[in-house]
Specification:
heterodimer, A: 226 residues, alpha/beta, Rossmann fold, 2 domains, 4-stranded antiparallel β-sheet, 8 helices, 9 strands, 19% strand, B: 5-stranded antiparallel β-sheet, 2 helices
């Protein structure tokens, strides 16, 4: 692989693009494959089958050829409501995972760069923040303020946009009250039941890093279910 | 399908290149049986034998390092290697798990 190709790959990863690296293992040539872009002449005759692998997000040797395809998928967008103590550990645990993290918190004193270096922090109320943040059914929401003023608008946005994972921090009572409010706001029972609350798998721990770990574990497991 | 893992091996490879190391990139391109790492798993090795990442659960990494050092020393560009448990002559250490893998070694230069 050429150095400049590696740099192009990293650039694409940084820009969260979806692409594949195709390598002819009998010549050692590698190229970047992107949808709707012309293939290098050496790979042109395989374009249909390469497209097919890419569409199906398959990695591996393409049958009856010397071509290896390595697909790079867009990271899962994870939106955390609340730049709280647990969030600091969530960000730490998520570093080696393919997640693109955004933290939303309207409270200025929580969102300092010193608490969250190199993370996208949006110091706005959720509804305002979501105006500029593109989300869809591949997005996840982790609501951690357990303040209805901040969490509820974000939960409603996530339900309406059919996020594949929605989790909300709070005791069983807090969650029951939350469900009641959402029902009054017109959400269906099955929608409300899709919220993971209290959030996280049962690990038993109560400290901030333990809760963060239980949330990450639940998020990863739901990612593979969807 | 979503992919949760991103081990940042290519990012690390780039930082080695910037520090003027000679780097071999090894990728799992095929697996059979109960091989521990999936297709696309990566490992990098430099001329000092430093390495990062993995292509198995630790069963064949030492042989992969030797092969990578040879690739760098002989100034070759790439090489494909099949690691089979039964192939004792080529590989002292087989995959203890009973799997087989094909790996692709290439220089980044």
């Amino acid at each position: 692989m050429k150095k400049h190709l590696l740099e192009q790959i990293l650039d694409k990863k940084n820009r969260k693009e979806e692409f594949a690296i195709i390598t002819n293992i009998s010549t050692g040539d590698s190229f970047i494959f992107e949808k709707n872009k012309t293939l290098d002449a050496n790979f042109e005759k395989y374009s249909d089958v390469i497209n097919d692998y890419f569409e199906n997000k398959k990695n591996g040797m393409i049958e009856n050829t010397d071509i290896f395809i390595d697909t790079y998928l867009r990271p899962t967008k994870v939106i955390i409501i609340g730049a709280v103590h647990i969030t600091q550990y969530l960000v730490e645990f998520a570093k080696s995972l393919n997640f693109e993290i955004f933290i939303i918190d309207p409270r200025g004193y929580y969102t300092s760069d010193k608490r969250f270096p190199d993370i996208n922090i949006i110091n706005k109320w959720p509804l305002e923040a979501f105006e500029d943040l593109k989300t869809d059914s591949c997005s996840a929401l982790i609501a951690l303020t357990h303040d209805p003023k901040i969490d509820d608008p974000a939960l409603k946005h996530a339900l309406k946009n059919k996020f594949f994972y929605i989790g909300a921090l709070g005791s069983k009572t807090t969650h029951l009250n939350r469900c009641k409010r959402l029902k009054e706001a017109g959400f269906k029972e099955e929608e409300i039941n899709s919220i993971h609350g209290p959030i996280g798998i049962k690990l038993g721990g109560k400290s901030a890093p333990e809760i963060a770990l239980s949330i990450i574990a639940q998020l990863v497991s739901e990612t593979y279910k969807s | 399908m979503k992919k949760v893992l991103d081990e940042k091996i290519l990012e690390e490879a780039n930082s080695w290149i910037k520090s003027n190391y000679k780097v071999a990139l090894v990728t799992v391109i095929k697996t059979w049986g109960s091989s521990p790492r999936q297709v696309g798993s990566k490992m990098i090795i430099n001329e000092n034998g430093d390495f990062s990442g993995s292509v198995s659960g630790g069963c064949v990494e030492s042989s992969v390092i030797e092969e990578s050092l040879l690739l760098i020393k002989e100034n070759r560009q790439f090489k494909k290697i099949e690691l089979k448990v039964s192939d004792e002559n080529a590989w002292e250490l087989g995959l203890a798990c009973g799997g087989e893998i094909t790996i692709f070694l290439e220089r980044i230069n």
